[in-house]
Amino acid sequence: MSSVRPQTTPPGRFYALKTHLALLAVQLAFGSQAVEAKVVMSPRIEGGEGLDPAALAMARMLGGAVVFQLVHWLGRAIARKAPASSDELDRGFRLHARILALSFLGVAANQALFLAGLRLTTPFGVALLGAAIPVVTAALAVLFRVEPFRAHTAIGLALALGGVLGITGIGQVDKGALLVAINCVAYSAYIVFSRKTIRGMGAIAFMAWVFTYGAVLFAPLGARPLLAAIPTLTPRGWMFLAYILAVPTVCAYLLNAWALGRSGPVLVTVYIYTQPVITAVIAWVQLGHGVALRTLVAGAFILGGVAVV
Known about the structure:
Layout: H1 11-41, H2 53-79, H3 86-120, H4 123-130, H5 133-143, H6 151-168, H7 175-201, H8 203-229, H9 235-260, H10 265-270, H11 275-287, H12 293-308
C-alpha cells in the first residue's frame, strides 16, 4: 500500500512570499500616510487639525523610539544577554556612529522633508515622487558599488528624472514637491547603506537606535512645536496621530527593515511604485482629490523609469 505525501510549500518559496507580503503592507501603510498626514496638518478651517509638520515629525520619531526601544530591551531581557566585552564595546561605538548617520538620512531628514513638502503639495504628487525612489536607489547602489552597473539603470534614471522635473516644475518650482524630491534622495541613500547594518544587528535593534538618534537629532527643531501642539489637539487629532504613529511609522518601518534584511535594496524600493495607486484611491475617497493631466504624464515617466530598472 503506497502512501501519498502531503504537498507542502518549499521553505524558500514561503520565505520569499513573507518578504513580498511585508513589502506590500509597507506600501499600504505609507500610501495612507500621505493622505492622513495631509489631513492632520491642514488648517482647521479646511477640515484639518492644523498640526505643524515639525510637531508631527517629532511625534513620529519619539513614538517610534519609545516603542522600538521597549521591544528591543524586552527581547534582550528575555534572551538574558551577557554584558559586552571591551572589544564588543569598541565595535559597538563604531556601529552606533554608523547608525547615527543612517538615522539622519532615514528618519530625521526623511520625515521632516516629507511632511514639510506634503503640507505644500498634493498627496498624489508626493506618492508619485516617492515612486522615483527605486530608480534613485539603483543609481546610488551602482555609484557606491553595492550593485553592478547596467545600461537600463541609466535609462530608467533619465526617465524618472524627467517625471520628477514635471512634478516639481522648472520655471515655477513647486516648493513642496522639491522638498519631497530631496527627501527621496535621502531615503534612497538610507536604503542602500542600511542593509548590511540591519543584517548584522537585526531589524528591531536597528530600528530602536535609528529612531532614538533621529529623535535626538531633530529635537532642536521639533520639541518646541510638539509641546505647543499637544494642548490644542482634539480627540479626532489624537486619533489621526495614533494611526500615523502605529501604522506608517512603527509597523511600516519595522516591516521595511525586516524585508530589507532578507532581500536587496532595489527589490525593497521597487514596491514603492504601488504607492501612487494606493494614495490616489484614498485621496479620492477621503478628500475628493482629482489628478491633473500634467501629474499623470509626469507619473508615466517616473513609473516608466521604474519599469526599465
